[in-house]
């Protein structure tokens, strides 16, 4: 097959891409599927529908979605503040947004656990009201918000920075006040970026392990996440069980990400980005 | 609605954008703000719109002092150079935006908004495109949508900031004529900013020429072209050359000879003679003819444009429009005669 194009190198570029994608991504995933296949469909199904596994999957995916949703709001707000306002310390704040990227997640987990534990700074404030944060799903949620925030900020920020000021001025001359302008003109233009950033935050949340296990308490049926359950199974030499959970996570993640991607491309069309 | 601008001063930090600008705009007039970049023309337009707050000065809409009216309540229609359409809205929603954001007491019902938007779409000759998104339109079409959107709010004045600046030459010409037609049909007081003198002269009832934050001259296209009030206006509008001359004994002297121009009551001493290519002609030897040599000749439409240098004044190089039938060659000696021109005193 010969492809004529002004941009040269399609064949080598695509070849290298597919090779790397195959070796680095698809091969391990295929191994996982093969391993699970040895169990047979019903075997996998039985392992995955175990109540403890189901609870862990629900915890992982439910809390990741919730954290991604919260990050969609606060990440956009953070990006807004960083782009729109000049204030002392803006650059420092800008740099600090990336810290969850750089920090070893275990460090983040220990720090969060120390803060939110019943004897920690924030946990101590909540304790008198019988509210427990650490060692409950709320703690997991907080950890996932923490690790997911930079994804939304860093995706929305450039789009917001590029947004034309004259569009907002146009809205103002047409009689729209600040809030109407933001709701009807500024935010719709950001929707595709917010969806893309939230999808990444969600994916990160599902796979997150280090920061969660310290604050989660890891109580089966309550605050046990699926990745931890995999580790537990492995430690018990229950490779089949671990593989089955992994396969379930893989499938559900893939379906959700596919859905988010579809939503993203729909929103790009809907909000006028596609030509 | 007539608009009066009084002593507007505006600076951006250290750089002054407007240094005391006053301008009266008659109701129903189409006026151009013309000037080079950095002359303050866009700032003036934005001050009228309420998008910029001047340091001092006032803006009147009719008898109402609008100086402190926020932009949302000034009821102006503003058209931006780069259209500034809402790209996530259809053409129809773009045009209807101004009506749909009104508070419920003054907002027309949805059907009425739709009807008026379709009417406007018809006015800007884009019927049938109401469900497109801006990205699916050409530049010229987008600017027409922007104009329809500005007209939808029934503005008291229509303000256009370099409306055709981002379009190619052919589309620009068409839109110019079309804007004039729209103006004549709707009768809106219209102010538009441009750096293109052809656009200003062709389109506007009056032209205000701005330079360095001041208005140099306001007048009809004929006035600013034929009777420029300042050297800047002479240089900026039309093609022109400036020659150093001397005023002495009630006469204008160029290259040691008096030329047949009366210096309009000005002091003696050095002055500048401003000429357009059509102000000079090749002449037979006459008492007031100046010997000159032709440097180069090129064809320019119906005429020949010759670059010449006065034989007695090597610094005096300028251009002449000669009839195409006249044979002139580079290197020839030909006397020239100055028919018209404008003398401004000073160096």
Q: From the alpha-carbon coordinates, what is the Rg of chain B to the nearest angstrom? A: 25 Å
Largest sheet of chain B: 6 strands, mixed
Indicate the structural class of chain A. Answer: mainly alpha
Radius of gyration of chain A: 22 Å
**CATH homologous superfamily label of the domain at 58-223 in chain A:** MetI-like
Strand content of chain A: under 5%
Number of DSSP strands of chain B?
Answer: 20
CATH class of the domain at 58-223 in chain A: Mainly Alpha
Counting helices, strands and paired strands, the structural category of chain B is alpha+beta
Helix/strand order of chain B, N-terminal first:
EEEHEEEHHHEHEHEEHHEEEEEEEEEE
Please give the most extensive interface between any two protein chains, plus how many residues each contributes.
A-B, 24 and 33 residues
Provide the β-strand percentage band of chain B. 25-35%
Mean pLDDT of chain A: 88
- The parts of chain B where pLDDT drops under 50 for at least 5 residues are none
> What's the tally of helices of chain A?
13
Which runs of chain A of at least 5 residues are low in confidence (pLDDT < 50)? none
What order do the helices and strands of chain A follow? HHHHHHHHHHHHH
Count of DSSP strands of chain A: 0
Tell me what the structure shows.
The complex is a heterodimer of chains A (275) and B (347). The model of chain A has no long low-confidence stretch (mean pLDDT 88). Chain A has 13 helices and no strands. Chain A has a domain of 166 residues: MetI-like fold (Orthogonal Bundle), CATH 1.10.3720.10. Chain B is built from eight helices and 20 strands. In chain B, the strands form five sheets. A six-stranded mixed sheet of chain B has the order 6-7-8-3-9-10, with helices on both faces. In chain B, β12 and β13 form a beta hairpin. The longest helix of chain B has 18 residues. Chain B is elongated, with a radius of gyration of 25 Å.
